[in-house]
Amino acid sequence: MAEVRFDNVSKYYGHKPAVKNLTFTCKEGGFLSIVGPTGAGKSTILKMVAGIESISSGRIFFNDTVVNDLQPQDRNVSMAFETYNLYPHIKVYDNIAFPLRAKKWGFNLSEDEERAKVMEIAAFLGIDEYLDRLPQNLSGGQKQRVSLARALVRKPEVYLLDEPIAHLDARLKFSTQTLLKEFAQEYKSTIIYVTHDYREALALSDTIIVLKNGEVVQEGSPEEVYNYPKIPFVGKTIGEPPMNIIRGESIVSGEKVIFKAGSDLSFICNDDLAGKAFSLTQKSKEKVPLLAGIRSEYIAVGKEKISEYSFQLPVYAVTHESESSIITFKLENGTFIYARVGSEMESSYEVSDVVWLDFDQEKTFFYVDQKLDN
Amino acid sequence: MSRIDVNHVWKIYDGDVVGVRDLTFTCEDKEFLAILGPSGGGKSSTLRMLAGLEDITRGEVFFDGKIVNKMEPAERNIALAFESYALYQRLNVYENIAFPLRAKKKDRKEIDKKVNEIAELMNLGSILHKMPGGLAGGQQQRVSLARAFVRNPNLTLLDEPISHMDQRVRMELRARIRRLHDDLGLTTIYVTHDQSEATSLCDRLIVINRAQLQQIGTVNEIWNKPKNKFLASFVGEPTMNFLDAVIEDSKTVSVTQQDKKIIFPFSGELKNITAASAVEMGFRPQEVKIERKRINNKSAIHGIVKVVEFQGHLTILTIELYDLNRTEIKAVVEAHDKYKTDEEITVVINPEIIHLFSGEEPVLERKGFKEKK
Questions:
Q1: Does B286 touch chain A (CB under 8 A)?
Q2: Any chain A CB within 8 A of the CB of B178?
């Protein structure tokens, strides 16, 4: 399989950029996910790798070869589309076998060899009982697995998977996700994967690219992207609850630095966090607008004051997850704050109780307040 | 704002297709009840019968003790919000919300007060003059919910109003729905196939499958004392793990590993089962303990990590156990413990997390879990 490298690639429709100045590498055997909201340009990237979309500027390499001018059929990629694109008039078996029969790959398989390959991937994805059906007689989730099986049945230079499990119901989605990861590990496949679901990206990839309006805003391992979002947009796109982003200001008062949001939230910053604030602001200014970012699991909640950095808020709502509960707070300025607490704690909190919150300041970030970042 | 009683209700479609079989449950006044189940299991038929959109074949539905079987949907005073928002496209947000009140011929001042109150709760104050077509999906859904809630309904029926929304707004909508329910003292029945949504919001949960009620109870009850194996594996994500085991005596089961047996003590009382019977031992990925050192002990079985799936605040491991079947199980671990593929680990299955099933039937009366709420 190949390494795929983007070198300053842009795609314009007329004067409108769909994606801009993309530079990244998916290593041989690597699993790279592209995450971002609808319209960010995710699918455009896959289509350029496949050769279905032309490249306006920049170069795409497979290993050391520039593929810009290669036709799709000469690139040796294998693609699963969100819209399945199955051949409607032939059976599931033949849909999956189709890439094995294409002359250009020169498989020349006997009937038995072909059947073995089709059966293997179909059994792996749990669709072996549908092989004799026509696509029209399948549910959306079944069609999607057929489309995925067709993509995975042979080994190309790179697999291009566009939301390949988006239409499966929750349980099947999780199990298929695990299967995909096993497949990628076992066959050391190069995979470029597009999804709007951050959980798939975190679970599957070794590299994640977060896309916003056609530009890469962060590239890194799942842990990096989750734990160290470069901008609030990344923190909000990755994770549920999304990262808490609180618009406020840092205030220098005597020896201390205080973060304050509206009239109802304010806490003292420890020296490290004050340092983070100073690195973004000028020390001299008394008040500087900033965004504070913190993940829900790093906010402690208690009935008693937890530390000198604690502050109080009324509980807005309590909702539950299997191993934890989410306590929601709402600031006067309309901002929601989510805290994840262990489920053994949940029953002790009621709506409107005023409780203490305590941010783990090591896990708290400050961002320059660029309005409308999300 | 009513107590809802469903009494031996059946829905039989043309011929003899049973949509709902002998369903009986009560939704208390001001309760938040979620109906969860696989698609095609009977959830929607139930919802439609409550709403009056479908006839009840047999049995009765009562609102506050009054039978409503023959009442038109409009007479039942139900607020309905569906997954697709169906707003009136030619009315602005204010008029959409005011619509049910105008239909009831409320006076102008009262309508204005109510619309503003609910708009405030759903954070729609700044977009009241906008047309639905220009709104984002999350905003449209909030308008749809506001319109459902505005008229002090007897019952609020919500049909998957959040599951297809963007992850960035789902949590906020959940919190708002739960808060609105509490503030307005609503009686809410929430129908969904999405269990994280159901369990996050409800006071009690009803699980329906194959047209039949499987269990009704708090999430905690169903989680800890599922009435059958279907429920044990249906509620919880990742789903419960099962291992082939044999009853040793009234306190232990064994799992075979090549030439030896591993003994697992369990807590609780056996029922309807005798020693030497084959059972399935269930335990939840969220409750199992993983040790990186090799432990040779009761309750401990070794295995190898096959897949590591990072999920942000936690990580899900797929582990191949060294039992005779090489069973694959899942375990939820802290995200900061960085496990590697092919790492050998010990799985510790403590007595209090064990479930035992013979076929569909639970054969262990579990004790000692604390009841929440």
A1: yes
A2: yes
Q: Is A241 on the interface with B (CB under 8 A)?
A: yes
pLDDT at B260: 87
- Element housing B280 (H / E): strand B278-283
Pairing of strands A31-35, A16-26: unpaired
Tell me if chain A has a CB within 8 Å of the CB of B175: yes
How far does the CA of residue B198 sit from the closest CA of chain A (Å)? 9
* B85, B160 contact by CB (below 8 A): no
Q: What share of chain B is helix, strand, coil (3-state, %, to 5)?
A: 25, 35, 40
| Preceding omega of A229 cis (within 30 degrees of 0) | no
Q: Look-up: residue for tokens 């842009």?
A: A10
Interatomic CA distance for residues A127 and A212, integer angstroms: 36
pLDDT at residue B1, as a whole number:
66
- Nearest residue in A to B319, CA atom: A178
Q: Does A182 touch chain B (CB under 8 A)?
A: yes
A141 contact B CB<8A: no
What confidence category does residue B32 fall into, taking pLDDT thresholds of 50, 70 and 90?
A: very high
Give the whole-angstrom CA distance, residue A171 versus residue A175: 6
CA distance B100 to chain A (A): 27
Number of H helices, E strands in chain B: 8, 23
Nearest by CB to B238, from A37, A174, A336: name it: A174
Secondary structure percentages of chain A, helix, strand, coil, to 5: 30, 35, 35
Residues in B touching A321 (Cβ below 8 Å)? 196, 199-200
> Helix B137-149 crosses helix B108-121 at what angle (to 10 degrees)?
130
Taking CA–CA distances from A341, the nearest residue in chain B reads B313
Distance in angstroms (rounded) separating the CA atoms of residues B350 and B245: 15
Pairing, β A191-195 against β A31-35? parallel
ipTM, interface predicted TM-score of the complex = 0.93
Question: How many degrees, rounded to 5, is the angle at CA B302 between CA B248 and CA B224?
Answer: 60
* Residue to substitute from A173, A204, A319, A349, interface B, most B β-carbons within 10 A: A319
Q: pLDDT in tens for each of the 374 residues of chain A?
A: 999 999 999 999 999 999 999 999 999 999 999 999 888 899 999 999 999 999 999 999 999 999 999 999 899 999 998 889 999 999 999 999 999 998 888 889 999 999 999 999 999 999 999 999 999 999 999 999 999 999 999 999 999 999 999 989 888 999 999 999 999 999 999 999 999 999 999 999 999 999 999 999 999 999 999 999 999 999 999 999 999 999 999 998 888 899 999 999 999 999 999 998 888 877 667 788 999 999 999 999 999 999 999 999 999 999 988 778 999 999 998 899 999 998 665 557 889 999 999 999 999 999 998 764 44
A197 in reach of chain B (CB within 8 A) = yes
CB B93 within 8 A of CB B147: no
Long-range contacts of residues B101-109, Cβ cutoff 8 Å, at least 24 apart? B101/B150, B101/B151, B104/B151
A317 in reach of chain B (CB within 8 A): yes
CB contact under 8 A, A170 and B170: no
- Give strand pairing partners of B219: none
Distance in Å, alpha carbon of A161 to nearest chain B alpha carbon: 18
B176 touches chain A (CB under 8 A): yes
Cβ-defined contact of A170 to B238 (cutoff 8 Å): no
DSSP string, B286-338: TT-EEESS---STTEEEEEEEEEEE-SSEEEEEEEE-STT--EEEEEEETTS-
Give the neighbor-by-neighbor strand order of the sheet with B32-36: B78-81, B155-159, B188-192, B32-36, B204-209, B212-217
Give the number of other Cβ atoms within 10 Å of residue B88's Cβ: 12
Cis-peptide into A164, omega within 30 deg: no
